[in-house]
């Protein structure tokens, strides 16, 4: 009897303690200036923080401090290429890589290289008023080049490696870039558009193997290898020309979803504020942590993350999305992916990456079937119900047992040591968040921010297991809601205030480069001197001070009969379908219904076709079959009902697409968010046919 009572009472106490913790105030009301509205601050800080380190006011000072405090710690690691071969699958060729162990350099060594690279820039004739562009995939030379430029107070223009030619020309010409630092692959893209570049005088190639055509006099530039610039600096050292807090550190070109990219001007003070704030909310972040860097460093999420890890003495190992796991597309079968080799403790992710991990695990589990699948399903349900507080199972010893028997293998996919995941760039589905919580046994915290706020705005606390929210304001930010009457949102709404999200604090950037009109439209300075950015996102404040993103002003379309459809909200709901890899909802004011373009999930659709006994020659043919369309549409309707969407919000007609949308196609951003205008143009005929049929 006593054991029975203990079995009931202890879980009850745990549940009550957990619920009381989740009810704590995470964001508190604050009196701020500017437009009428309601505002919150982080519960631990009465005013926005600018720096976590006394006397550190710039990114250059932060990095130098870290190198002095942790000189013998490992900082940057890169895998060597053992071999590369082509593999033919279904008539298509794929490159497969065999990568070796990580080779590391210490903080002391990196600082020496950074100092030498900065001196090399000066010796090449680069002066502080001239801008440098970094145009490359994420790699250790990217980080070194960034820090080297900071020591010369050279503003860095960041450009996605996947940016198209028109946007690349626009970015380089608008900022009048004098020096471009790039990889070998990106160098070939530069050569192709060299005749359209007006200001580039010098190109520094990160790879020693420079193609002959790149150094031709006709391009109007001199070309040097990264190694030679470093050697030149060692032989001709110069004193650092360090920046001030208000100097522009980075002009970051967004891979925006509409039109040409805009250059966001970020000062050292702006980026440092976000780095400092995130450091306070990642539990026990220290020099023992290992970070896997694979997202584009031209994206503010990755740039902040790498500077954050370096600031505390952690190690950064470089990888890529295509070599991330043992089963990634470019990893040779039987060899280790980046995560398995590195065994990171901390990662930054975008939802699309985590969705793929989840889908891959479920695909393997379903393929195995039998006892393995039953055991996984039981363990998952037990942990899920325990996490949701539905019953008193899967705590303590039982949780440890399930982790050992079932989830240990899942944790191994990302190296087995992950203790914290930072997710940003787009909304994360509740299902994927729960999957990570359960299978990796790690907190996954959703962040919310924009390039214009240096990725900083809100971030969920590691002990908050709720889904669908982005947490309270970061310690560097105030978050305010203001009325948007046209959309029917008001700060006086019940049960929660709703309105447009406006972000204020030291992380709010200067504005858009050479675009004063757009800057005046989006940025405001109140009577107290606080700088605010109007996001265009619609949010609501929960009672505990956490924020939920519920809409976006630009995504709302009025249908023929006056109903409003929020495209982003509907897409987020429909992404829950197992058949959907990506989706774009399209609404036309001259029609009473919506249609959708659906990029199908290959494994899910092929698995369904196999069970149904449907014959097809390729995936494109399968997508065109009537029964396939009906099955996918039924799945979308199911997800729509779960999300309580209105009938007019559910797409009436679909076009199924077999080819994925990637940054290289120009249809999604580097953060894998859809680009509506390019997609509309690319599939104009398909959309017209959907409405005509």
Automatic annotation (TrEMBL):
<protein>
    <recommendedName>
        <fullName>AMP-dependent synthetase/ligase domain-containing protein</fullName>
    </recommendedName>
</protein>
<dbReference type="Pfam" id="PF00501">
    <property type="entry name" value="AMP-binding"/>
</dbReference>
<dbReference type="GO" id="GO:0004467">
    <property type="term" value="F:long-chain fatty acid-CoA ligase activity"/>
</dbReference>
<feature type="domain" description="AMP-dependent synthetase/ligase">
    <location>
        <begin position="96"/>
        <end position="513"/>
    </location>
</feature>
<dbReference type="InterPro" id="IPR000873">
    <property type="entry name" value="AMP-dep_synth/lig_dom"/>
</dbReference>
<dbReference type="GO" id="GO:0016020">
    <property type="term" value="C:membrane"/>
</dbReference>
<dbReference type="InterPro" id="IPR020845">
    <property type="entry name" value="AMP-binding_CS"/>
</dbReference>
<dbReference type="GO" id="GO:0005783">
    <property type="term" value="C:endoplasmic reticulum"/>
</dbReference>
<dbReference type="InterPro" id="IPR042099">
    <property type="entry name" value="ANL_N_sf"/>
</dbReference>
């Amino acid at each position: 009897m006593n054991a029975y009572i203990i079995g009931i009472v202890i879980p009850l106490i745990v549940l009550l303690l957990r619920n009381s913790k989740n009810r704590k105030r995470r964001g508190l009301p604050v009196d701020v200036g500017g437009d009428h509205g309601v505002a919150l601050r982080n519960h631990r800080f009465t005013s926005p923080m600018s720096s976590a380190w006394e006397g550190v006011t710039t990114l250059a000072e932060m990095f130098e401090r870290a190198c002095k405090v942790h000189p013998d710690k490992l900082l940057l690691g890169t895998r060597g290429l053992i071999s590369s071969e082509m593999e033919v699958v279904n008539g298509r060729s794929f490159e497969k890589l065999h990568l070796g162990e990580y080779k590391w350099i210490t903080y002391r060594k990196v600082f020496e290289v950074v100092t030498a690279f900065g001196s090399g820039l000066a010796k090449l004739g680069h002066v502080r008023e001239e801008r440098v562009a970094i145009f490359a995939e994420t790699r250790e030379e990217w980080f070194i080049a960034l820090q080297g430029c900071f020591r010369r107070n050279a503003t860095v223009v960041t450009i996605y490696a996947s940016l198209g030619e028109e946007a690349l020309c626009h970015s380089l010409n608008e900022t009048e870039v004098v020096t471009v630092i790039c990889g070998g692959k990106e160098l070939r893209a530069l050569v192709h558009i060299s005749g359209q570049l007006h200001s580039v005088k010098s190109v520094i190639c990160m790879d020693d193997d420079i193609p002959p055509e790149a150094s031709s006099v006709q391009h109007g530039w001199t070309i040097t290898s990264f190694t030679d610039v470093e050697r030149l600096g060692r032989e001709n050292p110069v004193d650092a020309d360090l920046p001030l807090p208000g100097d522009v550190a980075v002009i970051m070109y967004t891979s925006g979803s509409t039109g040409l990219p805009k250059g966001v001007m970020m000062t050292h003070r702006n980026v440092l504020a976000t780095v400092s704030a995130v450091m306070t909310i990642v539990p026990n972040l220290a020099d023992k942590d290992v970070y896997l860097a694979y997202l584009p460093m031209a994206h503010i999420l990755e740039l902040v993350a790498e500077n954050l890890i370096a600031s505390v003495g952690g190690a950064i190992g470089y990888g890529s999305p295509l070599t991330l796991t043992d089963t990634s597309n470019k990893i040779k079968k039987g060899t280790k992916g980046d995560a398995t080799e590195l065994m990171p403790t901390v990662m930054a992710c975008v939802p699309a990456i985590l969705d793929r991990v989840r889908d891959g695990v479920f695909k393997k589990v379903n393929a195995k079937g039998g006892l393995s699948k039953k055991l996984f399903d039981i363990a998952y349900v037990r942990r899920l119900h325990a996490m949701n507080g539905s019953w008193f199972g899967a705590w303590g010893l039982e949780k440890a047992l399930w982790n050992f028997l079932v989830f240990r293998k899942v944790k191994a996919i990302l190296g087995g040591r992950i203790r914290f995941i930072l997710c940003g760039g787009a909304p994360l589905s509740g299902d994927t968040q729960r999957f990570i919580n359960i299978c990796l046994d790690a907190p996954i915290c959703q962040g919310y921010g924009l390039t214009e706020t240096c990725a900083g705005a809100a971030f969920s606390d590691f002990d908050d297991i709720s889904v669908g929210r982005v947490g309270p304001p970061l310690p560097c930010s105030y978050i305010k809601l203001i009325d948007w009457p046209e959309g029917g949102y008001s700060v006086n709404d019940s049960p929660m205030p709703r309105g447009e999200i406006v972000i204020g604090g030291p992380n709010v950037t200067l504005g858009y480069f050479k675009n004063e009109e757009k800057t005046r439209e989006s940025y405001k300075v109140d009577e107290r001197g606080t700088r605010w950015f109007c996001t265009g996102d619609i949010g609501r404040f929960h009672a505990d001070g956490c924020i939920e993103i519920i809409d976006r002003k630009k995504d709302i379309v009025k249908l023929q009969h006056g109903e409003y459809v929020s495209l982003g909200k509907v897409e987020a709901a429909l992404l829950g379908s197992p058949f959907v890899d990506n989706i774009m909802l399209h609404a036309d004011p001259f029609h009473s219904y919506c249609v959708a373009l659906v990029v199908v999930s290959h494994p899910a659709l092929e698995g369904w076709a196999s069970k149904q006994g449907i014959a097809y020659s390729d995936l494109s043919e399968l997508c065109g079959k009537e029964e396939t369309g009906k099955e996918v549409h039924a799945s979308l309707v199911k997800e729509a009902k779960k999300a309580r969407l209105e009938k007019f919000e559910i797409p009436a007609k679909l076009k199924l697409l077999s080819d994925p949308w990637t940054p290289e196609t120009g249809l999604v951003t580097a953060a894998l968010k859809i680009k509506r205008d390019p997609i509309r143009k690319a599939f104009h005929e398909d959309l017209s046919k959907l409405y005509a049929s």
